[in-house]
Amino acid sequence: MSKAEALSKTDSRRFACLFDAGISEFGSKPFEAASLNMIIKNAGISKGSFYHWFTDKLDLYHWIARQIAIDKQRYVIDPVESKHLDFFEHMEVLLADSLAFSQTDRKVYDFWRRLIAEDTITREKLTAPLSFEGQLSIERLIYHAIDTGELTHRFKAEHIVKIISTVLLSIDTLITDEMDTDEIKALVHTCITMIRDGLSGT
Known about the structure:
CATH topology of the domain at 60-199: Tetracycline Repressor, domain 2
Number of helices: 10
CATH superfamily of the domain at 60-199: Tetracycline Repressor, domain 2
CATH architecture of the domain at 60-199: Orthogonal Bundle
Order of helices and strands: HHHHHHHHHH
Structural class: mainly alpha
CATH class of the domain at 60-199: Mainly Alpha
Oligomer: single chain
Radius of gyration: 19 Å
Largest sheet: none
Shape: elongated
Strand content: under 5%
Helix content: over 70%
């Protein structure tokens, strides 16, 4: 647990203000153009306090992204994990609910849309910690599906894992501002159906 994550539990009001100021700034501008000074000012904290909690703007960004991920874990991932679904059902519900979750709060939605609009190098820098965790989680599910026969043994397991995880972790780049929840679910269903038809073990 980082210093910021530990302190946020004891000084929740100031961290809530910082979260709100940060997600608003990062959701409205490219990362490089986002003003750390403006975030600090809008949060009503001192620079001394900020640098006591965080090392720089990127550290703050990672903290905000992690807070969103924690909420998603609680409201989306954990409920799905408690259901008895096969691999394909699991992936479809998880993806659809995750994408729908990002649309429930306009600031969260703008934050992720701004992230998707970044160039590849910047996007990888901003998501490095979470992407690694997400990839490991998805890889475990895929390897389990291969072991249980839900996914074919016709191809190398490493190739199947790489292809499916790449598709699933990148699907949010296909979402447009004009798409509603039903259209997002239809896109996810198409994606999972294509994987099922090509890689099902049955």
